[in-house]
Design brief:
heterodimer; A: alpha+beta; four-stranded antiparallel β-sheet; B: mainly alpha; about 75% helix; about 0% strand
Chain lengths: ~525, ~300
């Protein structure tokens, strides 16, 4: 019994200490003295890349870290324009089925191997190799043949015209690594530390902690001014902020909206608000009762006060979605938003036979997107107002992705929250992958089993159509049909909030959720 | 006639003895200041829990995005949370959940654990060996870990948290009662009962267990405190009560993200958990001292 007393007392002491700690945390932090040596830039991000092997990369954090080391043929500027990277120029034949890329000359990989057309071809072939099973192989799904036709001339043959091919080639995951690194690599093997052509050379990956890089003195472009670059992984947002405030980190990504104002008031810190191309939605399981009834789906769209979520939770640093893709994306047409009208929602539910209410389950991630769980709770309460009794269920991110990837017959979910960043800035990536019938689980990312014959026709036709004006018309019609069908509760387009120390300049905050440091410098 | 009078006299004697025993314990508890403080704390939370709807100033679940993250004011006594819900009202209703979890899970532990321990201790032999090895396995897991395993199997939610923390406390009772029964079954009153022709079941439940009550009561007081703490821990990990249930651990966990801008969201639930656990621990200590003849 003495032990119980002691453990009871220990608990009390521990709790008191915790309370004291919490109180101290509430007090303003003192400005710590600058400890960072001036030749190292430290960036703290929330999630660790799952891999930096191009064929295994799947997330924005992986793209952010990876693009400092490995480069792709084409780079997408912050304004969405496509500019040469490892390809100096490109051209297509009359029907856009044969593309020729002139590879940049005089570029060397970090291991001294020369970059040439064959090196690129080896990488692209690996990317589409079914035995390798690259997660984003679909980016090059239309490519039939990859040939190095000259020392610096690469030819891609397509089965049929594929309009967004160039923006797909600008995707961060199609990075080119040294062929020496791929030699003798079996299809199931992965590269741990990629050897690319980028402005920084990756030195070490301390799992769970950091990735360190040093400048590539042999870089083909402008050599970065800062000698060393470190990416720290700090999942807890509050800890990330403390790291910035104390100078342990020079820049951080994903500042929670509620902390932005406080950070902005600190003269040593700059807060950067940037748009993003990510749309957050709650999808219905469109083949499951009662979500097969359009009135139910419409009702829930009308029940949610999107503006209140954007203003209240995000402090205005987000935008109510007016289409399934954001306005920066090619093909976007504003068709919404659904008006917030609880009375209409109740009416629609009553018409659908749910005058007495309806029980649903909403699955949502926690911590993957800013305020995701909080938004889910806000939605739950708004739905309750119109008689929809929603139960919230959350899961760890990788199990969540697996759970929502079930084929229709075994899918156990009713409604689920997800986000999608259309990082190619082309509607094909945002609409085809999420809403085409061909892309139903397990073939693609249509996890809500939406299906509309006319939408399928339009999305398929827009892929092979080469005239931009015609494509825009096709997407406009498809977006209107999708909107009217309401397969999702369309919520909002995220904004990004990053922050950096005021003595750091030249960081690129990219709408594609990348933070790039190759042009960064210290302000003395 | 004389037999009847004798029986009556014995009953009266027993009753008088019971009452005096109770008084004796009460006297010791009341003399122990720490225990009285503990009782006062528990009493306070009990009143809050019972009269929650009258004490709360707002609905514990009604959100209001325009008035989120407000600091304590006359309108919102403890401020508002990340969805603009009134923290005071959530804390008040949260006391119900914590007390419920503490009491019900302990009851589960007692109802399941005590018979297992009693039977195992009374019969001994192979049954005892098998049961105790099984209990050893359960004890090998730290209680909170066992509770997490059970919640993972059953799914999240308040009910399952009660079951999980209840199951996690079963080995504690089984082990405790087995020890007491082992000592008690050698007593002469057991031999007397057996000589009187009583069956095993009634010997265990009518004669042995009543004599093992003291350690069970003391253990239960501590167990309530532990269960409340485990439940808060599960809530903190997102495995306990689900949104929008105002469970203290969950409120604390949600508030963590806002610690720099609205520390009231973590301070108050933290203090509430602290005091409730402290209350039960103090009473447990007092009861143990009062029930132990050596410390009187």
């Amino acid at each position: 019994m003495r032990t119980t007393l002691r453990s009871g007392l220990t608990t009390v002491v521990a709790l008191s200490l915790a309370a004291l700690f919490l109180f101290l945390l509430g007090c303003p932090a003192e400005t710590a003295e600058e400890t960072v040596t001036r030749d190292t830039l430290t960036i703290a991000i929330g999630a660790e890349p799952e891999s930096l092997d191009p064929v295994n990369m799947t997330s924005a954090p992986a793209a952010t870290v990876g693009e400092h080391v490995i480069e792709r043929l084409i780079y997408m500027e912050t304004d969405g324009s496509l500019v040469p990277m490892l390809a100096e120029s490109w051209s297509a034949n009359a029907d856009s089925t044969v593309w020729t890329f002139n590879i940049r000359q005089g570029v060397e990989f970090h291991d001294g191997e020369p970059l040439n057309a064959e090196a690129v071809a080896i990488n692209l072939r690996r990317f589409v190799d079914p035995d390798v099973g690259a997660a984003y192989a679909f980016l090059l799904g239309s490519v039939q043949e990859i040939t190095a036709v000259g020392e610096y001339e690469l030819e891609l043959r397509l089965a049929q015209p594929f309009a967004p091919i160039l923006s797909h080639l600008s995707h961060s995951f199609i990075g080119i690594v040294s062929p020496a690194q791929l030699e003798g690599l079996s299809p199931s093997d992965a590269i741990e530390i990629p050897v690319g052509t980028g402005p920084y050379v990756m030195n070490a990956w301390n799992r769970g902690e950091s990735i360190t890089m040093s400048v590539n003195d042999n870089y083909w472009g402008n050599t970065p001014q800062i000698e060393n670059l470190v990416f720290n992984f700090i999942p807890e947002a509050s800890a990330r902020i403390v790291a910035l405030e104390t100078g342990e980190a020079d820049a951080i990504m994903a500042v929670p909206p509620q902390d932005a104002d406080r950070l902005d008031a600190n003269p040593d810190i700059d807060v950067v608000y940037e748009t993003s191309v990510r749309t957050i939605y709650i999808s219905f399981n469109n083949v499951r009762e009662p979500f097969t009834d359009r009135r139910v789906r419409l009702a829930m769209n009308h029940a949610i006060d999107k503006q209140a979520i954007v203003d209240g939770l995000f402090g205005g640093n987000a935008f109510v979605a007016d289409a399934p893709v954001t306005s920066a994306v090619f093909g976007h047409t504003a068709v919404g938003p659904y008006e917030f009208d609880p009375d209409l929602a109740r009416e629609l539910l009553a018409e659908a036979g749910f005058a007495d209410g309806l029980d649903v389950t909403i699955h949502h991630p926690t911590g993957r997107y800013p305020l995701d769980a909080t938004v889910a709770e806000a939605v739950q309460d708004m739905l309750a107002d119109v008689g929809v009794n929603a139960t919230l269920e959350t899961m760890e991110w990788s199990s969540y992705l697996a759970f929502t990837a079930q084929p229709p017959e075994s899918a156990e979910y009713e409604m689920f929250m997800l986000g999608w960043g259309t990082v190619t800035l082309d509607s094909d990536y945002g609409l085809f992958a999420l809403l085409h019938t061909q892309q139903w689980n397990p073939n693609g990312n249509n996890r809500g089993f939406y299906s509309n014959e006319r939408v399928d026709e339009l999305l398929s036709a827009a892929r092979v159509e080469t005239d931009p004006a015609t494509r825009e018309e096709m997407y406009a019609e498809a977006i209107q049909l999708i909107w009217d069908d309401a397969p999702w509760i369309f919520l909002y387009n995220e904004g990004q909030i990053n922050a950096s120390r005021s003595d750091v300049g030249g960081l690129i905050h990219h709408p594609l959720e990348n933070l790039s440091a190759w042009d960064a410098f210290f302000i003395d | 006639m004389s037999t009847a009078t004798a029986t009556d006299a014995t009953q009266v004697e027993q009753k008088r003895k019971k009452t005096s025993e109770f008084r004796e314990v009460l006297k010791h508890v009341v003399r122990n200041r720490a225990a009285v403080a503990g009782l006062a704390i528990i009493g306070f939370f009990l009143i809050v829990a019972i009269f929650a709807p009258y004490i709360a100033t707002h609905s514990p679940t009604q959100t209001s995005l325009v008035s989120r993250l407000q600091t304590p004011s006359a309108e919102h006594l403890l401020g508002t949370d990340e969805l603009g819900r009134d923290l005071f009202s959530r804390m008040v209703f949260g006391s119900r959940i914590s007390l419920n979890i503490g009491l019900i899970s302990t009851l589960i532990g007692v109802v399941v654990g005590v018979p297992i321990g009693a039977v195992s201790g009374f019969y001994g032999g192979k049954l005892d060996i098998i049961t105790q090895r099984f209990i050893d396995i359960m004890i090998a897991f730290p209680g909170i870990l066992l509770a997490i395993v059970v919640v993972t199997v059953l799914g999240v939610g308040v009910q399952n948290v009660m079951i999980a923390t209840g199951i996690a406390s079963v080995p504690v009772y089984a082990r405790l009662v087995r020890g007491s029964v082992l000592a008690a079954k050698e007593q002469s009153y057991v031999a007397a009962a057996r000589a009187a022709g009583l069956g095993d079941i009634s010997i265990i439940f009518k004669h042995i267990l009543p004599n093992c009550l003291a350690p069970i009561i003391v253990q239960s007081t501590f167990q309530i405190a532990t269960a409340i703490l485990w439940a808060a821990g599960l809530g903190f990990l997102g495995l306990g009560a689900q949104a929008p249930t105002p469970e203290w651990g969950a409120i604390l966990s949600n508030g963590r993200a806002y610690i720099r801008v609205a520390h009231h969201l973590t301070t108050y639930p933290g203090l509430a958990i602290l005091f409730m656990v402290l209350g039960f621990n103090l009473v447990g200590d007092g009861l143990r001292d009062a029930l132990d003849p050596k410390t009187r």
